Amino acid sequence: MPQPHGTARLDHVSAFAPADLARLFTAIEHCVLVHDARTKNILWANPAACAALGFTLDELIPLKAPDMSSRARPYRRETGVAWLQRAVDEGVSTVEWCYRSKDGQDIWSEARAIRVDLARGPVVMVQFRDIAEEKATRRDLSRTEGRLQAFLRNLDEGIVVLDDDGRVLFASESAVNLLGRDPGALAAADFAAFLAPDSAAVLQELLATAGGHGGQPTDGRYRLAISGAEDTTADRWFAVRCQYIDIQHDLRGLLLLFHDITATVRAEEEHRRDAQYLNHLARYNAMGDMAMAIAHEVSQPISAAHNFVAGVRGRLDRDDSADGQLNWGLEAATRQLDRAAQILRSLRAYVVRLEQSQQRVDLNDIVADCTYFIDVRARQHSVTLRWERTDEPLPVHCETVLIGQVVMNLAFNAIEEMADWPPEQRTVEVRTDRQGDFAEVCVVDAGKGLADLHVDRIFDGAFSSKGNGHGIGLALSHRIITRHGGEIEAADNTPRGAAFRFRLPLAESSP
To answer: What secondary structure does DSSP assign to 347-407, as a single string?
Structure first.
């Protein structure tokens, strides 16, 4: 049988007077009930128990379990008696018991029964305390934990915490699913081993400086290497937010919040391929426009030179003494051939610039480079051009050839629009100006305008005002301008005609 409680070192208790012991018992804040070990009747209760149950000591002593316990099945008299008997037999017994106060209020408590051997015989001392708030708190915590677990399981975002060496301290269920790893393989694993070499190097650098970040989050992209896959296109990409955390010294390390952006990255790669194809298409479109203009322009000086040379040959056949006239004819032929050479040099310079990448340039200079070719097209259709270029610099970052192609495309469209109007009305105006933080080019004609057209569909590739056109020039122009961070629009002109304008961010205000 276990050693009874209360038999050891009772000599120390005798040092207290009975009145002092009474005061000590009275000061105890825990509720105390003393039961007879044999009958289980209440022998005594301290003031805290009387106050909690709402009974006086005289009222409390004759009560039985049904009078002061919940009537719920788990708290029946036989259950309470069995609990007290375990304390008699084993020395100590603890249960969660629901007492009921005099006014019928349930008191949830943790009750601990201890056998104490007194001079009069053994008794069972029950100590209990109200745990209603704790029970409610535990219930709330359990409910919150359940909700959090459900949320974490269904999150699109993974959560991982790494120690200073980059090993996994914690991984949410959603992180396990996103990484496609077995939960056991993640525990204490080197997280960098799951990443492609370039992303692993970025993570190692971040780990080396994580403690000095002052809690400020950093964003990045990480590439997850698919094990056993030789094709890197099978890799997956994650957007990751990293932040160093220290939660009451319980969880300390680098917190990674990440979600899968593989579809976004692949869409961006597809967009880059489309942009490259756009550049390719725009450059060949530019060459086609140039070829038509040059074919017409070069044919004139070459024909003239041919005529001069033919005349010189005829004179030589008829009169060997006509040196002066022969020299004049040869010089004239040479000038015409020089003119043709100059045209070809201009074309060659343009072609060389086709391969230039984005650079800082004055938009006025791009328009000036296009002037010659636009003039050629205007002369073909007897259209008068008016140029109004601002004296203010318009520095922009752009691919000069592509922006030049947009200028020429808008100007050629305006010239062809005016070709069927009476000669005296055939005018096209090309202007440059500064509009706030943007450089603007505006091409204005005096044609039939846009009144009968769907203005919102002009740049979608389905619009053309030409009988044999397909509208691809405006669609390309729209893509070129928007890819440079600019905007392009069309509007009716006053009193008639249309105005096409595009704007590019000035270099000093560009990101």
So the answer is: HHHHHHHTT---EEEEHHHHHHHHHHHHHHHHHHTTPEEEEE--SS--EEEE-HHHHHHHH
d(CA 52, CA 13): 28
**Is pLDDT at 187 greater than 90 in this prediction?**
no
On the question of a cis peptide bond just before residue 393, with omega within 30 degrees of 0, the verdict is: no
Number of helices (H) and strands (E), helices first, in the chain? 15, 17
**Can you point out the beta strands (E) in 26-105?**
31-36, 42-45, 92-100
Q: How far is CA 123 from the centre of its chain?
A: 70
| Cα 194–chain centre separation | 22
Burial of 98-118, coded b for 16+ CB within 10 Å and e otherwise, reads: bbbeeeeeebbbebbbbbbee
CB 46 within 8 A of CB 25: yes
Closest listed residue to residue 477, CA positions, set 447, 441, 430:
441
* Token representation of residue 308: 């001069």
User: What's the rounded Cα separation, in Å, for the pair 221 and 491?
Assistant: 42
The answer to whether the beta carbons of residues 315 and 326 sit under 8 Å apart is yes
From residue 311, alpha-carbon distances to 281, 327, 330, 337 in Å are 45, 11, 9, 16
pLDDT tens digits for range 96-148: 999 999 999 999 899 999 999 998 899 999 999 888 888 788 888 888 777 77
CA distance 336 to 298: 10
The structural domains of the chain, ordered by start, are 10-133 (3.30.450.20), 155-260 (3.30.450.20), 266-343 (no CATH), 356-511 (3.30.565.10)
Least confident range of 249-253, 261-265, 456-460 = 456-460
**pTM for this structure?**
0.41
Looking at residue 228, what is its pLDDT?
A: 45
* Other Cβ atoms closer than 10 A to 475: 18
Distances 145 to 135, 139, 258, 259 between C-alpha atoms, Å: 15, 10, 22, 23
304 contact partners, CB below 8 Å, separation of at least 6: 332, 333, 336
d(CA 213, CA 231): 36
Q: What is the pLDDT of residues 226-236, one digit of tens each?
A: 544 455 566 88
Contact 481, 490 (CB under 8 A): no
The total of other beta-carbon atoms located within 10 Å of residue 362's CB is 17
Q: What is the pLDDT of residue 291?
A: 63
* pLDDT in the model for residue 442: 96
* Whether the Cβ atoms of residue 417 and residue 498 lie closer than 8 Å to each other: yes
Nearest-Å Rg of the Cα atoms of the chain is 47
Model confidence band, residue 54 (pLDDT cutoffs 50, 70, 90): very high
Mean pLDDT of 201-225: 75
Contact 443, 428 (CB under 8 A): yes
